[in-house]
Specification:
Layout (H helix, E strand, L loop, with lengths): L3 H33 L5 E4 L4 E7 L4 E7 L2 E6 L3 E4 L10 H5 L32
Antiparallel strand pairs: 1-2, 1-5, 2-3, 3-4
Length: about 130
């Protein structure tokens, strides 16, 4: 029982040290992202939206162009990552594993549904008529 209190204190100090260390790493990562998010850089926001940094006044907000001519203002903390050129154009890993012929992507649609087709009705009274 005499050893319990010192071990508990040592454990608490170790957890506190690790917490501070992780916070420092997160702060450094955010500073790196902030330094890389210059006008013209492609970024991904925390909402999953991709865009290009249009302007940066150095403050809390940045302007992001999400489509040609569409500029939105975002809080700098919403930047998830700065995207390199190859990241958003690579095919996902599952696409390489399952060839196009395996998932049916090599077939073309040749038949276009016409407007003359009868509409399906969900009314049970007219189902069999």
């Amino acid at each position: 029982m005499d050893l319990f209190l010192p071990l508990l204190l040592a454990f608490a100090v170790a957890m506190l040290f690790m917490s501070f260390r992780n916070q420092k790493k997160r702060t450094q990562a955010m500073n790196d992202i902030k330094a890389q998010a210059v006008p013209g850089a492609r970024i991904q926001l925390s909402s999953g939206l991709f865009g290009t940094v249009h302007s940066d006044d150095g403050g809390e907000n940045i302007e992001v162009e999400i489509a040609p001519g569409v500029i939105t203002t975002w809080n700098r903390l919403a930047i998830r990552e700065v995207v390199t050129d190859h990241t958003d154009t690579e095919a996902p890993d599952w696409a390489a594993d399952a060839g196009a012929d395996e998932i049916g992507l090599d077939e073309q649609i040749t038949e276009i549904p016409s407007d003359d087709a009868p509409e399906a009705s969900n009314d049970p009274d007219t189902k069999d008529k």
